[in-house]
Amino acid sequence: MDISGFVLAIAPVALSPGASFTLAMNNVIHRGLAGVFSVITGTMVGIYIHASLVGLGVTQLLVRYPPAMKALQLAGTLCLLWLALRLIVSGIQAWRRPQRSVEIRGAGMKEALFANLFNIKAILLWLTVVPAFAGPAFAHYLVLASVHVAMMATWLLMCAGAIIFTARRFSVRWLKVVVDTGGGAFLLALTLSSALALLK
Question: Subcellular location, in the record's words (predicted)?
């Protein structure tokens, strides 16, 4: 097992904006630092599920059956599209009716879990990259999943702290508009580009 190589290989993925990042930053705006933990928990469970399925060889079955893989890709795309549109609507509501936007609860553990489980990039990462560093032992996959979770959680908490710091200096309403609408648009673009790439 090569932990340092894994960290170097996964750092660009773990630290780049994606579904978990977008959901976490949305939650920070709506619920403060506590809102990040539901996203971290959901993403963590998703990472451990990916690690377990790949470590046990179950995910390889999906690769062997293209219709099952396509169904998973479709489910993932629809899930991420729903999350993206929900964020955009939240941002628009914050812009139009700031007092009502506070009622939006943000993303929960379930949304973060589904965003991770059905994320085709996460599946491919665990299918193709991680085995090169894990070796044959199932326990190694769980160790690398723990490293991935630690990196992801640290990054999300640092970014959440930056958002909270910024919120003290700027209007929370406008931060909600920017983070929700911008994050939703980013997630929408990311999802659509991934979907288009899969159609080729």
Answer: Cell membrane
Contact 17, 84 (CB under 8 A): no
* d(C-alpha 118, C-alpha 96), whole Å: 32
DSSP 91: H
Tokens representing residue 13 in the block? 């993925």
Contact 120/76 with Cβ under 8 angstroms? yes
Q: What is the pLDDT of residues 23-59, one digit of tens each?
A: 888 888 778 888 899 999 999 999 999 999 888 887 7
Angstrom distance (rounded) from CA 189 to CA 200? 17
Domain holding 67, by residue range, is 3-198
Query: pLDDT (tens digit, 9 = 90+) per residue, 137-189?
Result: 899 999 999 999 999 999 999 888 888 887 777 666 666 677 677 777 776 77
Tokens 């933990």, located at residue: 37
Give the closest residue to 117 by CA, choosing from 52, 29, 197. 52
Task: Please give the tally of structural domains in the chain.
Answer: 1
Q: For the CA atoms of the chain, what is the radius of gyration?
A: 17
